[in-house]
Amino acid sequence: MLSDDAFRNVIDSTPLVSIDLVVSNDCGEILLGERLNRPAQGTWFVPGGRVRKNERLDAAFERLTTDELGRPSNREQARLLGVFEHFYDDSVFSDAPGSASTHYVVLAYALPWAMPDGAHAWPQEQHARFRWWALQAAALSDAVHSNSKAYLSFLN
Predict the structure, then answer these.
(1) pLDDT above 90 covers what percent of the chain?
(2) CA distance linking residue 43 with residue 97, whole number of Å
(3) Cα separation, 10 vs 5, whole angstroms
(4) Rounded to 5°, angle at Cα 95 from 94 and 99
(5) What are the φ and ψ backbone dihedral angles of 118, each rounded to 5 degrees?
(6) H helical segments located in the chain
(7) Interatomic CA distance for residues 104 and 85, integer angstroms
(8) Tens digits of per-residue pLDDT, 94-142?
(9) Which residues contact 135 (CB under 8 A, 6 or more apart)?
(10) Which of 45, 66, 50, 40 is nearest to 14 (CA)?
């Protein structure tokens, strides 16, 4: 695990590689979480996260689905939507003096989600709450981050 100082240096110097999970249900809705952390704090955003150094994409996908969705999935269950770039004026360290912007290279995957009977306990580390959104409602909402809206046209 990187120290905060080392990670600040990475954010200052390079793009980060991440996986975004565009999760959809049988009703044609997508899952969005209200972000707790920077960047994009306070907006509704698809789940996802960074790929770690020396972590294979399959392992990252399984870790992120477990951490972000509370249930492991593998990449074979998903469809690659494409490669995207996300640029933010802030970073996880924005409270610190001299904090830098953040640049992500994102591998976005569409992941179908079949809910078993009963409620699902969504992890709360990155998102205050989760909600299923109709595609049109997500596209029109100012609360949904534009980087998440960019995936909607690829879902058809």
Answers:
(1) 76
(2) 23
(3) 9
(4) 40
(5) 100, 165
(6) 4-13, 57-69, 135-140, 146-149
(7) 6
(8) 676 556 789 999 999 999 998 765 678 899 889 999 999 999 999 999 9
(9) 28, 29, 30, 152, 155
(10) 50
